[in-house]
Design a protein that fits this description.
Helix 6 packs antiparallel against helix 7 and helix 7 packs antiparallel against helix 13. This protein is an all-alpha fold and about 290 residues long. The protein starts with 5 loop residues before the first helix and ends in a 5-residue tail after the last helix.
Length: about 290
């Protein structure tokens, strides 16, 4: 039975989002030093997977990590590989805040994919919000050259892969535990990356190696914080605080790179966020009107 402690849920949601945004900032610094996202993802897996296994073993819950629908999980991870890979690579061409704002398009994609692949009913309210959200994306995307255009394309590709991950995660949640989904995703993504790493390997100095280690720690802390937030409060309560990633991104980027997003990007981001919040609101209404016993 879920414990409803909204304040604790919101605090851990904000902290978790802060950890993941800090991870993205580290990834930006690493890829700009010449290290491939493939190498980052491979090394990250070598740290995250053993940590997950140790945590579940210490809690006596290793059995929860066993996948039931293994082939589906592997397929999910193979497509989902594009989510972290595309986003990390986009940071080579885009400011962090611009990439974060554009990545918010994933909530519109999740709504669309849920309708077509999960047969979830999406009313005209949410379809209208999806349309408005994509108008916001069009406003926010303002490339000043081929490099930035590629960066925006990579973020949108990453957002689609992330939407696929969430949508298939919903389908798999009927038979798979959260721990199993997280473990298999990181294991498969990391294994793919490790196979490709010899072709893109770049030697790393102590500072870069430490940054990769810190990136893995932040990823683990962020995901566990989000899981703890959701376990202590209703998803509809904490989900809107995912947008605090923009605040984290702007603060981090200003203090490290002295960059602030331009007016067009901010306006587009506001449109996307408002559309996303409306989608969340409509989904919470639909859940509250569904019968408890079906």
């Amino acid at each position: 039975m879920q414990t409803h402690r909204p304040f604790i849920g919101i605090v851990f949601m904000i902290l978790g989002i802060g950890a993941l945004t800090s991870m993205d900032a580290l990834a930006k610094g690493i890829v700009q030093s010449g290290v491939s996202p493939v190498q980052i993802l491979g090394l990250r897996m070598l740290l995250i997977v053993p940590a997950i296994l140790l945590i579940y073993k210490a809690r006596g819950r290793l059995h929860q990590l066993k996948p039931v629908r293994l082939k589906f999980q592997i397929l999910r991870a193979c497509v989902g590989f594009g989510a972290p890979f595309g986003f990390f690579l986009s940071l080579k061409y885009l400011p962090l805040s611009d990439a974060v704002i554009t990545s918010y398009s994933s909530i519109m994609m999740i709504t669309a994919l849920s309708h077509f692949f999960l047969n979830e009913r999406v009313g005209y309210h949410r379809w209208a919000a999806v349309l408005v959200g994509f108008i916001g994306v069009f406003i926010a995307v303002s490339p000043s050259g081929e490099g930035q255009l590629l960066g925006y394309f990579l973020v949108l590709f990453s957002a689609f892969c992330y939407a696929f991950l969430i949508t298939t995660g919903r389908a798999l949640s009927k038979t798979e535990s959260v721990g199993s989904l997280v473990l298999m995703f990181n294991l498969c993504v990391g294994s793919i990356a490790l196979c490709a790493t010899p072709f893109v390997w770049q030697p790393m100095d102590f500072t870069t190696s430490f940054m990769v280690f810190a990136l893995a720690v932040l990823a683990l802390a962020g995901h566990f914080s989000l899981a703890f937030a959701i376990s202590n409060s209703q998803t509809s309560v904490v989900a809107p605080f995912e947008y605090t990633s923009l605040i984290w991104a702007v603060l981090i980027e200003y203090f490290i790179w002295q960059y602030l997003p331009d007016t067009r990007t901010v306006v587009g981001g506001c449109v996307i966020i408002m559309a996303g919040l409306y989608v969340i609101y409509r989904e919470s209404l639909n859940r509250s009107t569904r019968p408890l016993v079906q």
